[in-house]
Amino acid sequence: MKKWIAGLVLLSFMGCLGDDDFPEYNPAEQLEIDIAAIDQHLEEKNLTAVVDEQSGIRYLLLEDGNTTEATDGDVVDVDYELYNFEDELLDTSIESVAQDGGIHDADRDYEPLRFTIGTNGIIPGFQRSAVLLTEGGKGDFYIPSVWCYQNYGSGKIAPNENLRFVIKLVKVNPE
């Protein structure tokens, strides 16, 4: 009986919510907002970034790689560091970086992330950033929220939060 009443209360509450309670998500508008915020952030840091015209991702090439590029279907191994725009380290695949950043987890295996380019499960901006590098290359990527967690957020990542990834394309394993 209590579960039935709780369900009825929840249904009643949901019925009171109007369409205005959850703003409609417009990725094109959000991308414009994101790019303006990223450009302002880069300007404040006195950084000049390359612009990926396809995605709006801004990046600095930190290390050149060889000539091997990753394409859809390739399995890649990637080391990464994830930061918010306050330079707080949120995640990494590199144990020494986790220790230095105060987020080390003794129960975690720190190793390059392996994934297949073009598949679900990895945020699109991260995948796009990986293919902008060649094997052995490293870059500092400023990724619009629409290519990350969009208006949902995840853990410490707020909805519509732009992210910074430092990515090294360790290995390309062609399909």
Automatic annotation (TrEMBL):
<dbReference type="Pfam" id="PF00254">
    <property type="entry name" value="FKBP_C"/>
</dbReference>
<dbReference type="GO" id="GO:0005737">
    <property type="term" value="C:cytoplasm"/>
</dbReference>
<keyword id="KW-0697">Rotamase</keyword>
<comment type="similarity">
    <text>Belongs to the FKBP-type PPIase family.</text>
</comment>
<dbReference type="GO" id="GO:0003755">
    <property type="term" value="F:peptidyl-prolyl cis-trans isomerase activity"/>
</dbReference>
<dbReference type="InterPro" id="IPR046357">
    <property type="entry name" value="PPIase_dom_sf"/>
</dbReference>
<keyword id="KW-0413">Isomerase</keyword>
<feature type="domain" description="PPIase FKBP-type">
    <location>
        <begin position="73"/>
        <end position="173"/>
    </location>
</feature>
<keyword id="KW-0143">Chaperone</keyword>
<comment type="function">
    <text>Also involved in hydrogenase metallocenter assembly, probably by participating in the nickel insertion step. This function in hydrogenase biosynthesis requires chaperone activity and the presence of the metal-binding domain, but not PPIase activity.</text>
</comment>
<dbReference type="GO" id="GO:0042026">
    <property type="term" value="P:protein refolding"/>
</dbReference>
<protein>
    <recommendedName>
        <fullName>Peptidyl-prolyl cis-trans isomerase</fullName>
        <ecNumber>5.2.1.8</ecNumber>
    </recommendedName>
</protein>
<dbReference type="InterPro" id="IPR001179">
    <property type="entry name" value="PPIase_FKBP_dom"/>
</dbReference>
<keyword id="KW-0963">Cytoplasm</keyword>
